[in-house]
């Protein structure tokens, strides 16, 4: 059986048994292969915006000898029909890119029986802010430490009601500070805001931005102090 990275394994764990899955931006197809091999689901649509990644995925699928994976050329959800899937994985992209994919694919993703498994590589705060301002909610979230990098994997559902959160929340989400990876993830967000705050502190024209980062820093610090 294909051995997944810690990041992809965490994504797999967030997917419900027998879910109808689309892996958007499938790249090498490893997640799709694992979902079939492990028996978690019987069918996966492995989608990508470019032909080359799909060709790489096809070779890996053929090598694995499994069936049940459909390769599809698709810009986000553009080639996906609402009734085909109940779960979409969007991983390994910037938070703003993921937000745009969800926004453009609302006919598929904005359903209360639909699950999104998201893993932003950058700007997680922009993604969380988009989600909560557009009727989505993070159901569960986990930090993953892999290859000297920290990632967050989140399971998201559509609730249909905008529910804005604090700015500090957008930086750390529902990551558990009591786990080793969770503590490191939140600490990283704290240091990001510390650097921004300190760089702006003595610039008169940037006091609004300074106060923003100071407020976020204080909120995140309170979370860590409560561990």
Provide an overview of this structure.
The structure is a single chain. This protein folds into two domains: 6-165, Vaccinia Virus protein VP39 (Rossmann fold); 181-225. Helix 1 (6-13) packs across helix 2, helix 4 (95-104) packs parallel to helix 6 and helix 8 (180-200) packs antiparallel against helix 9 (207-225). It has helices spanning 6-13, 30-37, 51-64, 95-104, 106-109, 124-133, 167-172, 180-200, 207-225; strands at 21-24, 44-48, 69-73, 87-93, 115-120, 136-146, 149-158. It is built from nine helices and seven strands. It has a seven-stranded mixed beta sheet, sandwiched between helices. Helix content is 44%, strand content 21%. The model has no long low-confidence stretch (mean pLDDT 96).
Task: Name its key features.
single chain; 227 residues; alpha/beta; Rossmann fold; 2 domains; 7-stranded mixed sheet; 9 helices
């Amino acid at each position: 059986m294909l051995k997944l990275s810690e990041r992809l394994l965490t994504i797999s764990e967030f997917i419900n048994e027998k879910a109808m899955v689309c892996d958007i931006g499938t790249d090498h197809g490893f997640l799709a292969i694992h979902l079939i091999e492990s028996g978690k689901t019987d069918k996966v649509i492995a989608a990508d915006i470019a032909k080359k990644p799909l060709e790489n995925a096809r070779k890996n699928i053929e090598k694995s000898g499994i069936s049940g994976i459909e390769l599809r050329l698709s810009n986000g959800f553009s080639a996906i029909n609402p009734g085909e899937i109940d779960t979409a994985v969007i991983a390994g992209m910037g938070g703003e890119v993921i937000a745009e994919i969800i926004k453009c694919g609302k006919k598929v993703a904005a359903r209360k029986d639909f699950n999104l498994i998201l893993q932003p590589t950058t700007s997680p705060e922009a993604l969380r802010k988009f989600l909560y301002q557009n009727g989505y909610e993070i159901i569960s979230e986990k930090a993953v430490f892999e290859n000297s990098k920290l990632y967050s994997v989140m399971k998201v559902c559509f609730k249909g009601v905008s529910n804005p959160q604090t700015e500090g929340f957008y930086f750390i989400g529902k990551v558990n500070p009591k786990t080793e990876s969770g503590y490191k993830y939140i600490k990283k967000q704290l240091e990001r805001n510390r650097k921004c705050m300190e760089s702006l502190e003595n610039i008169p024209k940037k006091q609004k931005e300074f106060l923003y980062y100071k407020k976020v820093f204080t909120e995140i610090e309170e979370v860590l102090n409560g561990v």
